[in-house]
Specification:
- The chain is of the alpha/beta class.
- Helices cover 38% and strands 16% of the residues.
- It contains nine helices and ten strands.
- Helix 2 links the parallel strand 2 and strand 3.
- Helix 6 crosses helix 7 and helix 8 packs across helix 9.
- It is globular, with a radius of gyration of 17 Å.
- The relative contact order is 0.16.
Length: 274
């Protein structure tokens, strides 16, 4: 790439509003230096819109999957549909998937079934995973070990665990995604984790439209806010902003198995696809 760009490794572009609004938000993000987006799935019914949205932007990539919130809907038909999607060259990961101990109405058993099956699909397809985890860390790490998830690795999205947990994730070839909460004045655990990580396992994310960074916490999150997170990472690691952009984007490219699509442009594609 001719200039450093930021890679937003977790953003729900398809949830930012209607098409003109998404177009405006992407344009603002481009001006802010954001050159790549990874858009995760939540529910199977939303996958068509996800792929349609990603198709409108050359710098956007897809990670369809079934979120723990939707795990009760996992069945053989959904599994078949997801397996078919993983052959789409715009799809570079499976996500967001995992376990959530705070969700009401979806049992741990349902969540675990969907999670295990999606890990298996990802491993079979050779695609990394975007992990969602709240209040279920020990069990989630056990399942990752049992299902050989280290074969594909991926990204722990919205990480809120301890330094020890982060280092366990890294051993399984998972990067740690840092977003808005890192910028909060009261943040303690996030800065501690960031300071302890090897630099090659740090990536950026917004999770827009959720988890807005300081000083926008009472507003909807926007992809153009990613540089605010990068600034905090740079401060805590003692890096320049340019170094932060180069390092975190290179990490995302490596972890997601991407290559540059066009010389001089911040567009990526899956390795092995033309």
């Amino acid at each position: 790439m001719s200039e450093p760009v930021y890679f937003d490794t977790h953003i729900h572009l398809d949830a930012l509003g209607d098409e003109p609004m998404i177009q405006r938000e992407v344009c603002l993000a481009r001006r802010a230096g954001v050159g790549a987006f990874l858009v995760p799935g939540v529910h199977p019914r939303d996958w068509p819109r996800l792929l349609q949205t990603v198709g409108h932007f050359p710098e956007a990539l897809a990670a369809p999957g079934v979120h723990p919130l939707a795990a009760a809907d996992w069945n053989a038909g959904v599994a078949k549909a997801l397996a078919a999607l993983l052959a789409n060259p715009a799809v570079v990961a499976v996500g967001e998937v995992g376990l959530d101990g705070l969700i009401q109405g979806v049992s741990p058993e349902q969540q675990e079934k969907a999670f295990r099956h999606q890990i298996r699909l990802a491993v079979e397809a050779g695609l990394p995973l975007l992990i969602h985890c709240r209040k279920a860390t020990a069990r989630l790490l056990d399942i990752l070990h049992q299902e050989d998830a280290q074969k594909v690795g991926g990204i722990f999205h919205g990480f809120s665990g301890s330094r020890e947990t982060a280092l366990q994730a890294v051993k399984l070839h998972f990067a740690i995604g840092f977003g808005g909460p890192l910028t909060y004045p009261e943040a303690r655990r996030g800065p501690e984790v960031l300071s302890a990580l090897p630099e090659e396992w740090i990536v950026l994310e917004t999770d827009a439209p959720d988890l807005s960074p300081h000083p926008h916490r009472q507003e909807d999150n926007r992809p153009s806010y990613l540089p605010l997170i990068a600034e905090r990472v740079a401060h805590l690691r003692g890096w320049t902003l340019a170094q932060t952009a180069v390092t975190t984007t290179a990490n995302a490219k490596r972890i997601l198995n991407l290559v540059q699509k066009e010389e001089g442009k911040p567009y990526f594609r899956r390795k092995g696809w033309t």
